[in-house]
Amino acid sequence: MTQGFRTVSGGRIDRARVLRFSFDGHAYAGVAGDTLASALLANGVHLLGRSFKYHRPRGLLAAGSEEPSALVAVRRDAARYTPNLRATQVELYEGLEAHSQNRWPSLALDFGAVNDLLSPFIPAGFYYKTFMWPRRAWRWLYEPRIRAAAGLGRAPTQPDPDRYASRYAHCDVLVVGAGPAGLAAAAAAVGAGARVILCDEQNELGGSLLSDSSRAAPVIDGRPAARWLDDTLADLAARQVTLLPRTTAFGYFPHNLVALNERLTDHLAIPAALAPRERQWQVRAREVVLATGAIERPLVFPGNDRPGIMLAAAARTWLNRYGVLPGTRAVVVTASDAAYEAALDLQQAGLAIAMIAEVRDAVPAGLADLTRAAGIPVLTGATVLGTSGRRRVQAIRLARIRHGAVSEPKTLRCDLVLMSGGFTPSVHLFSQSRGTLAWDDAVQAFLPAVLAERARSAGACRGVFELARVRSDGAAAGAAAAREATAPGREGVCPAGALGRSVAAAAAGSAEELAGARGFAGALPQPQRARGKAFVDWQNDVTTRDLALATREGFRSIEHIKRYTTTGMATDQGKTSNLNALGVVSGTLGKAIPDMGLTTFRMPYTPVTFGSFAGSARGDLFDPVRTTPMHSWAVKNGAVFEDVGLWKRARHFPCPGEDLHRAVNRECLTVRNACGIFDASTLGKIEVVGKDAVTFMNRLYTNAWSSLAVGRCRYGVLLRDDGFVYDDGVVARMAEDRFHVTTTTGGAPRVLALMEDYLQTEWPDLGVWLTSTTEQWAVIAVQGPTARPVLESLVDIDMSAAAMPHMSVAVGHICGVPMRLFRVSFSGELGFEVNVPADFGAAVWEAISEAGQAHGITPYGTETMHVLRAEKGYIIVGQDTDGTVTPEDAGLGWAIGKNKPDFLGKRSLQRPAMTSADRRQLVGLLTVDPATVLDEGAQVMLEPAAPVPTRPIGHVTSSYYSATLGRSIALALIGGGRSRSGQTLYVPMPQGDVPVQVASPVFYDPKGERLNA
Amino acid sequence: MLLIQCPYCGERPEPEFVYGGQAHIARPQPSAELSDQEWTNFLYRRNNTRGAHAERWRHTHGCGRFFNALRDTTTDHFLATYKLSEPPPRPPAESAE
User: What SS3 state is found at A73?
Assistant: First the structure.
């Protein structure tokens, strides 16, 4: 197919470089410099999509990122399928494959279009009113059907194979938008010595200058605009300004953090193999200049959404930038001066202009002369009654309306309708920055009023439209931003004070400039019984009728009306619709627009891929992984790992053919009868040192530390000041002024933070230093009756029971490596914990493992560790406690230093509720059937088959099968539990209520004889 | 993402810091002499300020030091940060409209 609508010359395209592409399987050709949209228009294709709700045929409304309708999917392969792209932003490359969306079976014949006929039955909010019964059907019938029928593109089904990059950047001045205002700002800022970043969402920098016509090309600094643009960009690059095309500033966050998304490879036919597809920038700028321009408003009239009806500025862009004639015979409907330029440009390019329908009562004098000279008829005070044409506009009905009476109706044949309702300044980013907007009567728009950040707006985004004034506004903003960013004494991005400044007023525009840009907001006047849908929001299919319905149903706030009708809530965030929606509602309610207020803008300005946010944080890089020094030994020896926080811990070491339970049973029995070796390196470790170390420990932990002799250990309990158990662990006194504190694996950071908190803020007078040593020590637990002979041959210290009783610590060497040797047990057996510097952990582990072969040693994992400790009734903080458990509840009352004047939580333990007899207390549970293992977390009831609702008296916290005891065991927190010893209670399980007997939580060796062996 | 002025390190991004609750609440000692109500107030009662709020922050992923800050709860902006040993500065007067 030839490009029948391509002009012979002009535009920023390279006609010699032909690019082939396909749309819905049809082959077309475009040229380098095209977007998908311009290439399709060049081929005379105007039908690009189906609308969201009514499945109406849609074409191109706009030429930029504000395009609401022409959403397409681009497919490179099965995984690289990107839906919901605006065709106006998809740059053409050789072989591009694009597809339309939301249609079946084809774009031209879409069965979903029946919705358009059913529209009286599906008004705004219909899904709130219908589909109510039966209630359950919403989930399996109504919602899936509605979602399938209404919608955008489908998501790709395979993982995203592309790479995404991220970058932090700092600069003095960030300029958003590289139109005439942004370019002037960047030039002024770099001229004043500032470090500048300039970004723009388009593939070329230049903004509105890219769409200027050759007919009346503006002259800048004595050069044609196009040459001036090339020179300026070369100059900025030479002066080290970071120029970022294809880069959308999509979010404005506190303290001048602006998020940019740079699209790196989507425009390339064959991207380099490892090149990132997108790069997300987080720019922290001392000053920001927003030069985001303005977006033309559509006019709201019946049938205003047919393909071939577009914004006047878009038509100018198609012609002047892309060399495309968007039709053959056009009617222009306008309320602003800009559309006249478009009409004259198109006429000169050979397109017939049938009429200009001027909404205003008079044509500005200068323009009247021009249209007369060009022979274009003008109808003033005009409105549009409707349009016709199925997949492309074919005719438009114009008329005058005075006091509800229609006069001079006429129907004109055309294949193109240009409309212009004036320009809406793009205040999205300013609003995101929490700046306050105010209605400006002269410009008839919301403009930046009060700043919340160190930012400036320049050019059309603050209502300055005429080119020379835009450039001087930009230059002034850039110069001022550079001055403040580099001012002597300016430190950092956010010096205190000077916020809430009002925006400096722009130099007043001429009366003609303002009158020309002001335009029209709302719906064009219609006779009493108008027919046809007049669209306000193209992307969400919201019509004037929906807005009227919302006000009829009592909605008054624009925020409520927005949510009820979904106007402005589509992915385009109402770029083309917000002000018209306000105008329509304002007309219906008889309330002025400034009194209605504006809805809030949120990030992102345009949709951003998930990949861009994820960056490199995927797969293995999603979260850090912590491994112990003995990790590779465990891997080599077949360990099965579990995640404990960020740690990888060996859960069990199955022999060939063993499942979890058989492996754990074997490991448990081996530890009880011979010896086991266990990697306890993940335990938190904090070295508490200083002349006041014992005072500090006394104030923190419940225990009495003054009486702990050097070389001895004690089980310590740490409470919060509210009296509940926070952490526990063995604490060794290495010297008068030095404690080796251990914490739970998960509790290490928060215990250190709590210690630092009290040390820095409550007791800064104490001479104490805290050092995390968790990763400095490798900890190898050797537990079991033969533990002593296993270690004795390797160490240079006396390990006899007399020299090293239970709960003692000694310093010495193992295999010649410095060691702290603890005699402690978390298994109930004779046990030692060997602490060696982490680098020696693997070697020492292997040496112990080797030496243990003669003594029946086995490696064991966390699951066996859990069973062994539960058999002894040792708690795990966070499993057997839950933040509402006191030491007394957990059976740890003995660990409280009764004679200490104070410690964290002491006062709270005296409150009446903390000593009540019916508090939940830790007890053991024995199932009547020894083979039944209770579910952890199961509730415990007084009676079987209690009628619902009922109150449980407790819950199961730990539950295992104990090979040692040949039966199941469980720990539970039960109301008044210790007074219920021997009582039968009931645990509801999937198979029914399981009877259990309350027992002591110490199931094995209650006298601790094995421990003290 | 806010920037926070650590009194020891200077301006650093928010993720380096951890919030520490209302400032200037000394732990009563000896706690045994307090009534249940007084102790409860110390444990649980906090201001819900609209405007300048004195609060504790810790530069956890930096110098590790606690410091105090005056933050406007309506705008989220920090009005001042200061060392623990220093008294809270007076909140700056509202800028004239």
Answer: strand
